[in-house]
Amino acid sequence: MFFKKKKKIEKKTYDKETKLPVIKCSICNGQQVAGFEDKKTKKFEDIMFIITEKDLDEFKEMYDIEGEIKKIY
Fold first, then answer.
1. I need a labelling partner for 6 at 20 to 30 A (CA). Which of 30, 42, 57, 58 fits?
2. List of long-range contacts for 36-43, beta carbons under 8 Å, 24+ apart
């Protein structure tokens, strides 16, 4: 019996005072990108594509995010 090794996720940080974790969703094709939105300028910084629920879990674990993430369109 073979088991996949759990991929070690590199922990990263973000400025919680100025940035908000969000998922940017395309209305046309449903593409989703996880990243951070600047609270003042609303500028979006993309980090990674979200294709499966596992990708979203990886993003949340990487940046130590708990709970739901706001979606923007």
1. 30
2. 37/72
